[in-house]
Task: structure prediction
Amino acid sequence: MKDELIKLIFPNVKDKSYYEEKYPKRDLKEGAVVTRFAPSPTGFVHMGSLFSAYVSSKAAHDTDGVFFLRIEDTDQKREVENGIENIIRDLDNFDIKIDEGVTSNGEVGIYGPYIQTHRKEIYESFASYLMSIDLAYPCFLTEKELEEMREIQEKDKLEIGCYGAFAKYRDLSDEERIKKIKNGEPYIIRLKSQGDINKRIHIKDLIKGDLEFPENNIDVVLIKGDGFPTYHFAHAVDDSLMHTTHVIRGDEWLSSLPIHYELFKVLGYKLPKYCHLSPIMIQDGEIRRKLSKRKDKEAAISFYHELGVPKEAIKLYLLTIANSNFEEWYNANPRESIDKFKFDFKKVSSSGSLFDMEKLLNISKNYLSYLSASDFYNRLLEYTKEYDSEFYNLLVKYKDDSIEFINIERERKKPRKDYSSFSEVKDNMWYMFDELFFKEKKSLDNSEIIIDYFNNYYDSSDTEEEWFNKMKDLASKYGYATDMKAYKEEPDSYPGSIVDISNMIRISMTTKDNTPNLYNILKILGKTRIEKRINEYYPSSKKD
RNA sequence: GGCCAGUUGGUGAAGCGGUUUAACACACUGCCCUUUCACGGCAGGAUACACGGGUCCGAAUCCCGUACUGGUCACCA
Result:
């Protein structure tokens, strides 16, 4: 009778052992970690999911394990066009290597298919197995009945769900079940829970520590009305068959742990190690809440792309949040690849950290300062190509000058830190290009001293020392202080100091009163361009 | 409401019963260096262990309670 029922519901299923042979234990070295990123194909990866994906991949790659991508598309309402492609592309953009599963080269690996809707038969087989040992059953509760049930439960302050006396079809005879199905009554498959809510289970979470819950006693849905499995069931089946060792996911799953615990148990599989990540939080006025991909611009990866924050900086930031000892390690090894840092679950904070844009930008600033001039230039080109074609064209046209400018006080132990993102570069560099410099007319003062300098002191072949001595001479000539200490003691006895003199020159060539080293700027500009600027803005300077 | 988790200065955090007058990093303030800026050096301030009980010779660290915050209670993941 039971066989008939199962055959009626799942006419084409295989034996559980078939799959167990098909998906053998992985042949990996001792301690290798197998993780997965298992998103719904709802489109883009955001800060939160990137965090989880990055941590998962790092945990696997640090141990010569496997990181695979599985697509959880069993809710067809959530489907988004190009969802899968976008996820792969986003991971790829962050150099998160997908070893197995759904990749840019199609599905890779022997544990597939890795798209859940393609695994329907597998879930059916496992559901039928559970039916065969009387741990699952078809449930004929209608939506209306379910709703009424919930109302009663809410009113009487009972636990909500299908259990005990509420699980009306739990103990129906197989004959009656067959009859109802043949009658065309809609049904789903539920777990026949063996749990007792008064008993406790203990689960060790690698991040949250030792956890204790009441046993699950709900007859949770295994197979939905559309024939696809629920998350819970798919998780238990897939992560068993795919031999995931560490399930890394958001801590919103914590409360369904008792369900998963029971599911693994009834299926006869070992529970994976769980690592529940706390969400990244954001301060929203008075309240602090989970970073939301719908509400917060900071959640979108594209936001940083547009800003020109390099992907490396984002990974650096994510690791800083993920492992409390990372920052110290990185400060000690600032030029080391972060792949050398070993991720440690023990060092993951169990409370959610507040997203700190300032910190991210600071990390980015440091990262950018360590880049060589030519690397920086190339990355800047990439960025401007997409977001500022005018700037891009100038950078290409004046490649050597640009690199030289970028290199001012750069390639040394403690480089300048001017930029936290590529979008900030133009504002500090535009004046190097005549095309931008002459775009709008400016009115400038102190022309006498400036003209005197360029006519009588400036020599393009001066060394920095010679150059600076001339600045001092010029300052003295006009009564400006050359000794800053003396000037500070008696500021009133001078019209100004050498600072004012050098800033006159600086402003005349850049319009800005703060720039990188002026000597270098004048060197890069060179005699011809300097003369052009002087002639344009200080016509009276023309020697005849 | 039930269940679960979290709570160390503005932020991320170290801490795992005594060397804590509580690290470190970011941010902030001041000084020094200095042609501006940046770098660097030095110093500084923080109303920081949510609150209340216990255990202990001793508690940020262990236990209990309270408060607050977050999560979750679907045929969504």
Q: What stands out?
A: Chain A has a mean pLDDT of 89. The radius of gyration of chain A is 33 Å. The first strand of chain A starts at residue 34 and ends at 37.
